[in-house]
């Protein structure tokens, strides 16, 4: 007899791993199926030469003692196994402009406020108002504060329609301060007329509550989560690409079917894959047209061009902070970039590698790139699990883009080119192939303050035993995805007791 699992989870991104961990801890039999050679979704790392590169997680917040992610990781049993380095207390992020001026983000609300008021003494009221609003909005999201109130533990209808750009503009006329406050909006691919303030607030509060880098790469979260799942009897399999499902007469899924014909039986199914890809896998005819059209018509956030530089030994000092560099005055403008002056805005970080200590082994640079730029190669596919090749023109395209990014970096760090031993890059196609969405979108469905409910996706679907989890459900990011996993699991557990367990961890 083939084993029937309580839960079959499709996709091993953090959402799938977190659901598996929660459910295995509650005594359910769980299996996670991953199509790639590496688990973890955006937590994956890869190595070139002897350097380790993160694909998605460059730093993480809310990890000071007692903060929400700290508690979640404690509950999962992985906190004491993660190797982390706390970022500079006085500046974990630096917002930098074309004229060379830099503005530090300090950790903790009081320190953050004091630092900003130092730059803008006449704007104390605006800065106080901004910080108070962040705390007020975040307080309206119960689960982010390890609380449950009624059914609405994800978000408060009153705050989801407030636009981030508009709110910041409403508290000050000082253009530079507005740009400094929104200066790290690459963290959520901010769009001036769409990004809700709650997205900005939850992310800012998270980083102000303890910003850390993962020593030797972020894949350790996935590794420790998978170990914890197995300890509690869960199973995880790689190279298992789910392509369809079989149903019984009541319209319930009985099993998923893999590309090789293998099947996995289950009572409940959770998809950690992008909702529009989930519809393709589980059968478009099983979903109502109105739902299908809405989900498949949702706009995704923009994709990215990610450049990894490897340095010659002891040539570039390690930076215990990140830089958000803006070559244009308007920090919201980089997303609608102009080809001639691209990249206009980008994120710079140096991973902390234990063996090189005070020197950086490498640098990661992320900037915006529309999927349309790689459209001509959209028919190609290439991962370690399914090796494919792309033509010489594609390789040249990447080289040209790398050269442009390096040219820009010279403006920030004169002479950096001479310190670079090797350069590698990833395009929207790389993210599409490894993450399994349709366009390489970095943060999934784009949240929209103009129609907030339209971009909200319920964890329950019309198929009675199919549920959704991951970055498209409530929020992206390590914290957002972890919260989403709890929401996905609530129908199967006593949610009050579960959150109490997290608090008591």
UniProtKB/TrEMBL annotation:
Single GO term (MF): oxidoreductase activity
Entry keyword Mitochondrion: no
Pfam families noted in UniProt: Amino_oxidase (PF01593)
Keyword terms: FAD, Flavoprotein, NAD, NADP, Signal
Domain of life: Bacteria
SUPFAM superfamilies cross-referenced by the UniProt entry: FAD/NAD(P)-binding domain (SSF51905)
Protein name as it appears in the record: NAD(P)/FAD-dependent oxidoreductase
Organism for this UniProt entry: Dyadobacter fanqingshengii
């Amino acid at each position: 007899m083939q084993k029937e699992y309580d839960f079959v989870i499709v996709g091993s991104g953090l959402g799938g791993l977190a659901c598996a961990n929660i459910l295995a801890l509650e005594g359910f039999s769980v299996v996670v199926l991953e199509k790639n050679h590496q688990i973890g979704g955006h937590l994956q790392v890869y190595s070139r030469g002897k350097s380790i590169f993160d694909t998605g997680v460059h730093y993480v917040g809310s990890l000071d003692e007692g903060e929400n992610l700290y508690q979640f990781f404690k509950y999962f049993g992985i906190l004491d196994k993660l190797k982390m380095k706390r970022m500079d207390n006085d500046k974990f992020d630096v917002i930098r402009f074309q004229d060379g001026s830099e503005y530090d983000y300090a950790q903790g609300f009081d320190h953050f406020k004091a630092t900003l008021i130092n730059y803008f003494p006449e704007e104390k009221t605006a800065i106080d108002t901004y910080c108070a609003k962040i705390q007020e909005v975040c307080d309206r999201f119960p689960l982010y504060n390890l609380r449950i109130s009624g059914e609405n533990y994800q978000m408060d209808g009153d705050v989801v329609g407030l636009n981030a750009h508009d709110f910041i503009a409403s508290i000050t006329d000082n253009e530079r301060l507005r740009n400094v406050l929104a200066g790290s909006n690459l963290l959520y691919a901010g769009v001036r007329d769409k990004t809700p303030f709650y997205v900005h607030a939850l992310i800012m509060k998270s980083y102000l509550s303890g910003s850390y880098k993962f020593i030797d790469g972020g894949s350790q979260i996935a590794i420790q989560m998978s170990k914890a799942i197995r300890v509690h009897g869960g199973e995880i399999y790689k190279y298992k690409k789910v392509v369809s499902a079989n149903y019984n007469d009541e319209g319930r899924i009985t099993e998923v079917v893999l590309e090789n014909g293998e099947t996995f039986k289950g009572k409940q199914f959770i998809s950690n894959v992008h909702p529009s890809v989930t519809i393709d896998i589980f059968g478009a005819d099983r979903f109502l047209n109105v739902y299908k059209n809405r989900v498949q018509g949702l706009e995704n956030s923009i994709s990215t061009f990610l450049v990894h530089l490897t340095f010659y030994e002891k040539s570039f000092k390690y930076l215990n902070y990140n830089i958000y560099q803006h070559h244009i005055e308007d920090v919201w403008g980089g997303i609608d970039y102009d080809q001639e002056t691209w990249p206009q805005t980008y994120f710079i970080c140096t991973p902390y590698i234990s063996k090189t200590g005070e020197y950086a082994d490498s640098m990661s640079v992320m900037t915006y790139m529309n999927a349309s730029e790689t459209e001509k190669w959209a028919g190609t596919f290439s991962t370690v699990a399914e090796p494919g090749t792309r033509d010489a023109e594609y390789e040249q395209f990447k080289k040209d883009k790398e050269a442009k990014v390096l040219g820009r970096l010279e403006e920030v760090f004169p002479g950096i080119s001479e310190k670079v031993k090797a350069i590698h890059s990833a395009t929207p196609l790389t993210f599409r192939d490894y993450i399994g969405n349709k366009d390489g979108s970095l943060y999934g469905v784009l949240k929209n303050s103009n129609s907030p409910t339209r971009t909200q996706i319920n964890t329950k679907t019309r198929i009675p035993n199919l549920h959704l989890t991951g970055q498209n459900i409530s929020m992206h990011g390590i914290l957002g995805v972890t919260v989403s996993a709890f929401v996905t699991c609530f129908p199967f557990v006593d949610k009050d007791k579960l959150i109490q367990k997290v608090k008591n961890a």
